[in-house]
Amino acid sequence: MMTPMRYVLLVLGLIISIHYILSLTHEEYGKATSISNLAGQWTGPKSNPPYKTPVPEEYYKPDEHIYQPDRKANATFVMLVRNSDLPGIMSSMKQVEDRFNRKFQYPYVFLNDEAFTQNFKDNIQALTTAQVEFGIIPSDHWHQPSSIDEERASKSREDMVRNNVIYGGSVPYRNMCRFNSGFFYRHELVQKYRYYWRVEPDVSFFCDVDYDPFLVMQDQNKVYGFTISLYEYQATIETLWGHVKSFINANPDLVSPENAMEFLSDDGGESYNLCHFWSNFEIGDLDFWRGEAYSKFFDYLDEQGGFYYERWGDAPVHSIGAALFAKKDQIHFFNDIGYRHNPYQHCPQGGLHQKGRCWCDPTHNFDYEWYSCLNKYDKMFS
């Protein structure tokens, strides 16, 4: 016979379970299909894209203890954060250390538009034995340029707020997008590096990374690496593609003949399909951004004022730049790096999930959901 106390505990357990199920349903809002449902619909490309070719075993260093690898790339982690982001960036950094960097010992560069507090620095440095540097962003790299017509920009922000455009009323968000699009790689602390891995607060890294992604970029001549791709909000980039076409027409020699236009456009470049790589995770070649093609491209876009008159994001700007000025096979999908930035996640499947000892649920994977652009990336290699 059930005692009153056991009955109360049973009821409480049921209530907690129901609440948990409901919270999962809410979190998964917007996901149109599951991986199991997609299995019969998606046949994949006719040939293996580069990311489906396994990373050679020579890159892997599966070891339980800290060691110094026999060779390293000239690379760093770059984290753009504020002092108030300390809990979130500590969570992200701890996962980076546990899953990868405690073994490989790459340095960190933290950037802020104001000075970091000593408390921030102390807590960050306690998480790693790798080198950590803290830098302040130059004012002209961060704040709205004086060339921007503030009356016009203000009206645009008001219109976006009225239309419920995400971050539509935020000037700091626009400053961040412009900085990430065209200035972070110019910072004095970043100048000495060739490759970077961008890390944001409050993200998850699900899998062990027992090889060096920076060496993959270096050895295989990759310039841009991603884990998630999706569609941009049309309302934030109304005139962006028109300016892109104007730049291409004026500078056809800068466009790579083996580019990834197929990822960006479904009609040969006449219009933009809104696909971009989600830049809150990116591993990239800093020299590519510093090169002639992208430098001219960013300067041209910056002159148009769209970072403030609209709300151009660094994700579409980076994606368009990489797709146009690099070869398509220089853009790499890090299929084995499990990653989440709410509300989307990439969770490696099958053998990759097991090899990486991933803790994500394989059925919660954004790769081929209706709002993902990974299928367009795949088709480039069909």
Automatic annotation (TrEMBL):
GO cellular component terms, semicolon-separated: Golgi apparatus; membrane
Family: Belongs to the glycosyltransferase 15 family.
Keywords of this entry: Signal, Transferase
Gene Ontology molecular function, alphabetical: alpha-1,2-mannosyltransferase activity
Gene Ontology biological process: cell wall mannoprotein biosynthetic process; protein N-linked glycosylation
Catalytic residues, chain numbering: E282
SUPFAM superfamilies hit by this protein: Nucleotide-diphospho-sugar transferases
Entry-linked InterPro entries: Glyco_trans_15, Nucleotide-diphossugar_trans
Pfam families according to UniProt: Glyco_transf_15
Full protein name: Glycosyltransferase family 15 protein
Segment forming the signal sequence: 1-23
PANTHER family, per database record: ALPHA-1,2 MANNOSYLTRANSFERASE KTR1
